[in-house]
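Q: Structure tokens for this one, please.
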Amino acid sequence: MAINRNHILAVTLVVLLAGCGGLAGIGGPSISDTEATVVEGQPVLVFDYEIDDFATALLEGPNGNVLYETRIEPEKNTSTLYMGQPQGGEYRILIREGGETLTTETLEFDGPELVLSDVSDNWSSNSLESVEVTIENTGDLPARIERGTYQVDENEAVSYISETVKPNESVSGSISPGFGVTEFEEPGLVEGDLTVETSVGNLSGEFSRDLKPASLSIAGVNPVWSGNALEEVIVRVRNSGGVPTEANVSVEHQGEEAAVTGVGIVDSGELVRFEATPFFNPYEVQSGGEAQFDVFVNSPSGRVSDEFTRDIAGADVSIESVDSTWESGRLTQVQYTADNAGEIEAEYDMTVEVNGETVSEGEVTIPPEGVSGQTLAEDSFTTSLDYAAASGGEYEVTVTLDTGDGTVSASDTVEFEGIDSTISEVDTTFFDQYDSNSSELSSVDFSVRNDGDIALRYDSVEIEIGGASRTDDPYGTQELEPGSSSMEYVSVRDSIVVDSGSHDLTIRLLLDGDTVASETTTVSTE
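A: Here is the predicted structure, written as tokens:
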């Protein structure tokens, strides 16, 4: 049998038929109530009979051949004769015994008449799952349906139906691929041919379906946030078209890609979940206010879009506390705790002041969660501290942040008693001048002790005696920690000449020209 493969389906069913006929009764042994029907899937003639002894019943077909014979008993009155493959014409039932024909019944049949009364193609989106057929027998003999075939393009499916349909009844069968389904990836008109092979010839039919192009829409957008950070966007995409398509999702903020997905398949009629994520870290919105994001679904069928927004709270910073650390009157560390009531990380210009004097400047970053105990160390590169208390009293350490719209600040105050110095153990060296009642001061040695709570710092020593003074600064700035002492050895340059005898000697410790400690004692040139 030839099959048309021009974009058409073909279904084949084979039907073997049977029918009904009338019968005429005769006297003596008799035959009555004949009926063409189906028994255990086979076309048969069922008849009633009356006989006096065992006999043989035979069935002759239209060509005169004996189609079937069987022994019948007088105790029974019904028998069945198999018809083989029924066809229209004259059939004759004979009852014989010992070579003698006891009675006959002649039956005339038009034959089976099959009609393909219904064709239904069953689809799941773009997949042809089966073709359902209904065959009706309008004749008067049964017929056999063998198999059905459908064909679309190069796709063919064959299913054996193997049913016998009685006269004036119908049977249904399903034609489907042996494995899986027949899928169509391209839009357009799908036309199929089918053939049903039967015992009385082939029945033909056709079916078609118009597969619409893929049509995507965004069914839902659900962004997942952590503060100002976009962690994920869940996008549900529906395909209301007739064929599947590839698609991917991208999310943009002010033209910048914030999240993306890989390529996925959206089948016809399906709702698919896409999870768009940033490449590495969550995408952070850098400014407060309403942030708008555009969602795009990209596919060969076109691009569809949606959007979502989020109100981002801008940075709102306050300094909760300041804690300053001092060592021997020197500011070594400042810690501050700042709160950010917004969702945006922000950078601010920071200033550290002591009693209104700026001692450190730099930039700090306050994240959305704020900072607790943030340290500005003395040796920090961008926020170095350089301050030492020079005397007793209160020292207010203030941390100020410039927010651009104003400043926020907080302070910590400490108090020092100051320097408590003692100069003692003064020892002088004089040289007598030749042939004169005068002496020359050559050196002064003394001990310095600091019993205060800030460091004693000095960069030079001034010696005064007899109305004259000399300053010596050979070592640079000296720093004497609280509770410590040291010896100083001062060599007097441009020696001071005084009369021999006792003199008041004043020792002054200077820092940047200012006296930070002094002591006057009486010394003798002897």
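A few notes: DSSP finds no helices and 41 strands in the chain. The two ends are 149 Å apart (CA to CA).
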